[in-house]
Amino acid sequence: MNRQTLTHPIRTQMFIDGRCAGSGDGRTFAVFDPATGDEIAQVPDATDADVDAAVFAARRAFEADTWRRLPPAARERLLLKLADLVEQHGDELAALETLNQGKLLGFSKMLEVGGSAQWLRYMAGWATKIEGSTVDLSLAFPPSVRYNASTRRVPVGVVAAIVPWNFPLLMAVWKIAPALACGCTVVLKPAEETPLTALRLAELAHEAGFPPGVFNVVTGRGETAGAALVRHPQIDKVTFTGSTEVGRIIGRQCASDLKRASLELGGKSPVIVLDDCDPRRAIEGAAGAIFFNHGQVCTAGSRLYVPRSRYDEIVGGIAQIARSTVLGSGFDAATQMGPLVSARHRDKVAGMIAQGRDEGGEIVAGGRASDRPGFFVEPTVIGNFDNRPLTVVAEEVFGPVLVAMPYDDVDEAIAAANASAYGLGASVWTSQLDRALRVIDGVEAGTVWVNTHNMVDPALPFGGFKASGIGREHGRAIIDAYTETKSVCIAY
Ligand code: NAP
Ligand code: MG
After folding, report:
1. Residue 410 confidence (pLDDT)
2. Three-class secondary structure of residue 271 per DSSP
3. What per-residue confidence (pLDDT) applies to 161?
4. Domains (range + CATH), the chain
5. Catalytic residue flag (residue 264)
6. CA geometry: angle 462, 301, 162, nearest 5 deg
């Protein structure tokens, strides 16, 4: 399979109110194949008026009786149909994702396509399971009157969903599937680097039978289209996944407008190896934790804490994996790591590695951008044996860059792991349950993994402590994020 698998022409129009649309002023921007640097498409650069049209389409669809007042089973059926269509067009969607995002084709198939179908089906099931409760009140006035009280969950309204470029299709589905299950309508803005699968998803949703305006996609830049969407007075809720920096901007705007906001933000997740671990498993696990998806994972295990006595063995083993990793196109079966998403991101990652070296870090493996065409950076391991306050330890790189630090006792490792602005994920590698439980108790993170890393499931809540965000996605928790509680009090 290769880019020729794209049996459909690439969709390059926005999807608003059940129809394809260009931008009002005809302006477009280029999207690229990161494995070659070649331009692959031009997509609309949405204006404020385009955003307005999409939001009003979503508002009309929300106010109509044809979506939120449908029987929940009808919404469930449409989401299941969309999951089927995503699978039926899986080869095409996977190839499109690898072409535009650069990830290995196997991961495009398994995670972007397979994961999207799985999330759509899980969330479809929630449509028929949204519940309130009855409440016994203590009101005793007037004396002859009784009260019957209950709560119900109602859709929050029109949702603006803004997503990043690391898992373009899956992130879009993480937003739209629960929002639609709850009866909300959505305007989605994909990242400017990776808009193509979201445009195809909207078309498939239309084919599945979602009414016009229920799910709209606008393509554009964050600072223009994204910001216009967030501040739009007809948006009731913003759900955002992206950097902490942009999350703060969006959070401030939502606070001032009193819009609901869910923020899934950056991370600097620690990997804590204990001295009783299975070393092969820890080495391979720590390498996978940072190099999976070329480090472009919000929970990437980017800080490694290793017992001083095992430092050379563990860090050396990971460096060996880094050095032997085959870089190349995600379409090539021999490739083990693809490109970063853009030239700008490659330069940022290479710059942070250089800064780490200049500040006293030791480059144990990799250490620079690759010479080949496309946007490649070598998988990199930076040794920080002296525990220097390197910028690359504090700040998110979002690339294949691991910093390794020794520790003397586990409490010291936990304290170092927690000495971060972030708190998204963490993993501990050990063969002793009681030691794992002590690390789980001590680490400040939205998810703690034991002898694994980066594993997510639609049933397991996901989100960040501290600067890694506000709110949780997936599981039962997500229903609260897309509904409001309406309390009902009846006197009789
Ligand atoms: P980003 O720069 O924050 O952009 C994310 C999205 O926000 C993009 O669609 C972007 O549009 C848009 N945007 C930018 N400025 C905006 C503004 N002022 N108003 C409204 N929207 C705006 O993040 P990224 O570089 O795409 O993605 C990497 C980041 O995402 C990392 O920090 C990573 O940790 C985080 N992430 C977090 C999770 C999680 O679940 N916690 C998951 C994945 C990624 P443009 O593309 O047009 O700029
Ligand atoms: Mg951006």
Report:
1. 98
2. strand
3. 99
4. 3-265+468-491 (3.40.605.10), 270-457 (3.40.309.10)
5. yes
6. 45
Mean pLDDT of the 207-225 span = 98
Residue ID of nearest Cα to ligand 1 atom 14: 222
Q: How many residues does the chain have?
A: 492
Judge whether 54 and 391 are in contact, CB under 8 Å.
Answer: no
The response to whether residue 222 sits with its C-beta less than 6 Å from ligand 1 reads: yes
Q: What three-state secondary structure class fits 217?
A: strand
Catalytic residue among 264, 378, 396, 444: 264
Point out the ligand nearest to the CA of residue 473: 1
**Beta strands 425-429 and 380-383: pairing type?**
unpaired
What DSSP element (H or E) covers 337?
none
Please give the distance, rounded to the nearest whole angstrom, from the Cα atom of residue 485 to the centre of ligand 2.
34
Provide the 8-state DSSP code for 277: S
Considering every ligand atom shown, identify the ligand nearest to the alpha carbon of residue 190 and give its number.
1
What average pLDDT is seen over the chain? 97
- pTM of this prediction? 0.97
Q: Are strands 422-423 and 425-429 parallel, antiparallel or unpaired?
A: unpaired
φ and ψ of 79, to 5 deg: -65, -35
CA 243 to chain centre: 10
- State if residue 394 touches ligand 1 by the CB under 6 angstroms criterion: no
Q: What is the pLDDT of residues 33-49, one digit of tens each?
A: 999 999 999 999 999 99
Query: Residue 220: nearest ligand to its CA?
Result: 1
Strand stretches in 97-198, DSSP E: 134-135, 147-155, 158-162, 185-189
Pocket test for ligand 1, best of 194, 243, 457 (most atoms within 8 A of CB): 243
* Average of per-residue pLDDT across 255-271: 98
Contact 423 CB / ligand 1 (< 6 Å): no
Neighbours of ion ligand 2 (CB under 5 A): 222
User: Taking a C-beta distance cutoff of 8 angstroms, is the pair 242, 62 a contact?
Assistant: no
